[in-house]
Amino acid sequence: MDDRRLRRRTQLWTLTTVGHTVPLILAAGFLAGLAPVTVPVAVVLLVHAWVIPELYASRGAGVVRVRPSVEAAAHRRSLGLLGDLVGHDARELHRRTGLVLEPGRLGVWVVGEAGALLVRPGGRVVCCYCVHATDPELPTGDRVAHLLLALRADEAGFATVANLAFAGACWRLRRRLPAIRRDALVQARIRASAAM
Amino acid sequence: MPQLIRMDRTGHTTLAEWTVQDPAAVEAAVAALHAELDNGYFAVVSRPDGTAEQVRELPVDAQLVILRRPIAGG
Q1: How far is it, in rounded angstroms, from Cα A120 to Cα A122?
Q2: pLDDT over threshold 80, residue A10
Q3: Closest approach of chain A CAs to the CA of B25, in angstroms?
Q4: Distance of alpha carbon A29 from alpha carbon A116, whole angstroms
Q5: Measuring CA to CA, which residue among A98, A87, A139 is closest to residue B12?
Q6: Could you give the strand order of the β-sheet that contains B3-6, starting from the edge strand earlier in sequence?
Q7: What is the pLDDT of residue A88?
Q8: C-alpha distances in angstroms, A55 versus A7, A48, A51, A80, A176?
Q9: Residue B42 · residue B68 · CB < 8 Å
Q10: B55 with A154: CB under 8 angstroms?
């Protein structure tokens, strides 16, 4: 995976979304102009046109969901190791949001336990990747550390292995994220905007 | 002191510690590394500047070598 291929995949995703929504909007406009009795159907179509991208964004937000951790001692130990791998600011952000910020060549990554967000340079577009360590019993910090080390060692390989769950506007994803996690996306957008 | 650690269900486990001046400790660390690589782990050298490199042999000058499981999409 490189920058060009990633841009193409993002554009394809946008085209797919447009392909899903624009026909519904056009049909709604046609029905609304046809007769007053068809206006309710037009409204239903518009709702569909709005809901489809929201469902995609919701799927994207799911990649940074929290999973239940194993026993407390292992949890604390894993967080200690993760803390050693990142700087003070990243540690603090992880404490607040459960996510780690990691700048890369493709953009600014936000790494969680079972997935990662990639805010592209400019800060407008985000890609949501579903990816996880293969041992499901790992404690929280180790799950993040697994992804972080894999990302640092081979960013292109990481983006290739991971499954793209959503690509689209940051604002759309932000609304679907749990409040506690939004700050990580905001921080990543600021970093990605500054990188332009 | 340089360490070889494995991320596992306990948080992490220190498998070996060595110094360049101690060939026996280096040998033990190399053996531990290869045993874990054979078990399917990946070895990553984490550097203080925030970079990481995947390795197949023990870099004796590294401060921290971490063993991790493969990752998968989905």
Answers
A1: 6
A2: yes
A3: 23
A4: 38
A5: A139
A6: B13-17, B3-6, B64-68, B42-46, B52-55
A7: 87
A8: 22, 10, 6, 36, 9
A9: yes
A10: no
Q: Where are the beta strands (DSSP E) in A2-144?
A: 100-103, 108-111, 115-119, 125-133
Question: In angstroms, rounded to a whole number, what is the distance separating the alpha carbons of residues B58 and A136?
Answer: 27
CB pair distance less than 8 Å for B74 and A145: no
Interface test with A, best of B6, B13, B69 (most A CBs within 10 A): B69
The pLDDT tens digits for A127-152 are 999 999 988 889 989 999 999 999 99
Q: How far apart are CA A135 and CA A116, in angstroms?
A: 17
Helix (H) or strand (E) holding A182: helix A179-194
CA–CA distances in Å: residue A95 to residues A14, A75, A115 = 33, 13, 17
B3 reaches A (C-beta below 8 A): no
**Which of A137, A146, A147 faces B9 most closely, judged by CB atoms?**
A137
Nearest in space to A102 (alpha carbons), one of A154, A168, A148: A148
Global ipTM: 0.92
Q: What is the Cα–Cα distance from A128 to A166, expressed in whole angstroms?
A: 5
Q: Kindly indicate the confidence band of residue A122, based on its pLDDT and cuts at 50, 70 and 90.
A: very high
Cα B26 off chain centre by = 12
User: A107 in the Ramachandran plot: left (φ > 0), alpha (ψ -120 to 50) or beta?
Assistant: left
Strands B3-6 and B64-68: parallel
